[in-house]
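Intended use. Records like the one below are meant for learning the mapping from a protein sequence to its folded structure. Do not use them to infer anything beyond what is encoded.
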Amino acid sequence: MTVPGRRERKKAATRQKIADAALRLFLERGYDAVGIRDVAAEADVAVTTLFSHFASKEALVFEQDEDFELRLVRAVTDRAPHEGLIPALRREIEALVAHCGAEGALPIWEMIDESPALRQYESAMRLRHAESLAAAMAAEFGLPDSTTSCRTIARFAIDAFSLAREAADPDAALNEIFQMIEAAWEVTDLPGTVERPRVVRP
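Structure written out for the chain above:
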C-alpha cells in the first residue's frame, strides 16, 4: 500500500477541515442559511481553496462521495478469488449502512431530507455510483459497460443501501433485499452468474 506523502496528507487535512466546518454550520444554522463564504471563513480558507476541494455547496454535505464510490467498485474488483459477487456487494453495503447509521448521523439525514437541493444531489450521486459499479461488474466479465444486467443489479445494490438505511431494522431489510438481488443475479445470462474461482489480475 502506498503511504500518502506530506502534500497529500496536507491536502486531505484541509479538505476534512472544510467539510467539518461546513457540516457544523449547516447543523447549527440550517443548510439554506449558510453560504459558501460562511464556510470558507469558518474553515479559515479562501473561497478558491474551498472550490478546489468541493465543486458545489451540496458536495460539502457528501464529502465521502468519492470514497463510497471507490469502496463499491473495489467490492467487485478486490474481492477474494473464491468470493461470489453478490456476497461481496452485500458486505460492502452493510458496512456503508452501518457507517451512515452511526451515532450522530440522524440530524444529517434529516437535513438532507428537508432540502430539495440535497435530495436532488443525492439522487444524482446514487445514479453515478450505480453506473461506476455496473462498469466494474461488466469489466469483470468482459462485457460492455452498457450491459443491462450489470446496470440493473448495480442499481438494485445502490437502492439496497437507501432502503436499509431508512428501515427500522436495517439487517432484516438487507436480508430481504439481497435475497431478491441474488435471485435476479442467478437468472441473468452473464458468464459470471455461476460463481467460479477468479484469476486475480496483477
